[in-house]
UniProtKB/TrEMBL annotation:
A Gene Ontology term for the protein's cellular component: cytosol
Pfam family for this entry, one: SRP9-21
InterPro entries tied to this protein: Signal_recog_particle_SRP9/14, SRP9, SRP9-like, SRP9_dom
Protein name in UniProt: Signal recognition particle 9 kDa protein
Amino acid sequence: MPHYQAWEEFTRAAEKLYLADPMKVRVVLKYRHCDGNLCIKVTDDVACLLYRTDQAQDVKKIEKFQSQLMRLMVAKESRSAAMETD
């Protein structure tokens, strides 16, 4: 399981993983108060990408990334639903 140190590398790899097979990818966000660590994991059961941080400023980056993934998910769903109705 690769642990990414650089945020940009993690986001590129996670988006690439999502775009490869959107129906199998899931995102898990976990906060451990005792350690003060925030962990985001993106997996498709074959590959697992992990990014950990203890910096408060990274919370905004993670929130923005999750909203970007949600927009991709909604866009894919609306396109496939439109194709099924035609």
